[in-house]
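Homework help thread (please don't just give me the answer)

Our assignment gives two proteins as sequence + structure token strings and asks us to describe the second one. The first is just a warm-up. Here they are:
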Amino acid sequence: MTSLPHRFTLLQRLLHWLMAVCIIAMFFIGVGMVSTVTPKYLPLISIHKTLGVTLLVLVLIRLALRLYYGAPPLPVDLPATIKLGAYLSHVALYGLMIVMPLLGVSMLWAAAYPVVLAGGIQIPPLLPQSDGVHTLLWNAHFYLAFAFFALVLLHVAAALFHALIRRDGVFETISPVSLAARATPAERDTHARPAVNVQTEKYSRG
């Protein structure tokens, strides 16, 4: 490919918003799990495990699509520090979307709990039972969840910044519908981004 796309592909956009809904659901379910001892706990943990493994599969597919199709360039007038921040935050988001489900499944294995998903699908254990390892993995999963939540809030704030304040077309690259038709001709002229060659764009978003 000689240049980067101006929007993510339809499949990439669908995966982004599907995963966003799943991640928000995971946060609420996680809070419900640690704050209840009622019979609702078991259904919640079953949904949590199923969503976690599903998200792991989806993020791997999304990462493969990102590597294959690339990502739209950020506006050329965006400060370098913001571009670097966008790059690092996306690396952290992808990393946590992969690490969190792996930690969750691993801590269940270490506690000798069966990992049974919706539909009775069971993932065979790959770790031996160990109370010490279980405690370590549980703590990592618990505290990284707060870091993950903070990153998601930062991601949402950045999206609103680009969509409502800068109005520079960054949000449109991942929005489910095109916003260009809603903009006035003056806005389209003002916020149109020049084509940037892939060799000249140091940082990209995802």
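The one we have to describe:
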Amino acid sequence: MPNARTVVRFVSGQPVEVTLAGDPRPVQGQFGPQIMYGCEAGKVIFADPGLAAAIQAAHAASGDTISITRHNGNGKPASWAVAVVACRRFLDETAHNPAADPAPPVVSAVAGGATAALRQIEAQADRRGNALYNALCAAIAAAAKAEAFAELQYKSALRFSPADIKSMALALLIAEQKGVLR
């Protein structure tokens, strides 16, 4: 059957990585309204409103690879952690500009501060490739990973503010300029 799709299933606490393909569309599922996300390799996700909101909050788009982790809530609705682990827009830019930083920034739905800082940086896209931009991307990635790790391992809401991320970026920039990170 060439059109057979595999429905992605989520086990609490176990991250699942998928690459989104196409635009999401609303569907009526057996448990009410859902959003259907097509994925590469013939996979499909039927997202409840909570998961759909987490994917949207992570600014995930078609072509992005995302990590999704479900957390059961002891009688409460499931909560979701969504992180973009490979951003297609960034990868496309890198392919056209070999001098660009090859490590895509990680954006996490649980990383409110990191997401806000990334929006500020993306607004200044003409600065791509300079040392400060690279330090900011590295700081955002570190903050998002730390927040996601705290959420997964300790069910803790660790949050970095934009000021925290700027401080980390400046520390990275200074260390790079001093040759500590080489």
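TA reply:
I won't write it for you, but here's a hint about the kind of observation we're looking for: Helices lie at 49-57, 88-96, 112-122, 131-154, 162-177.
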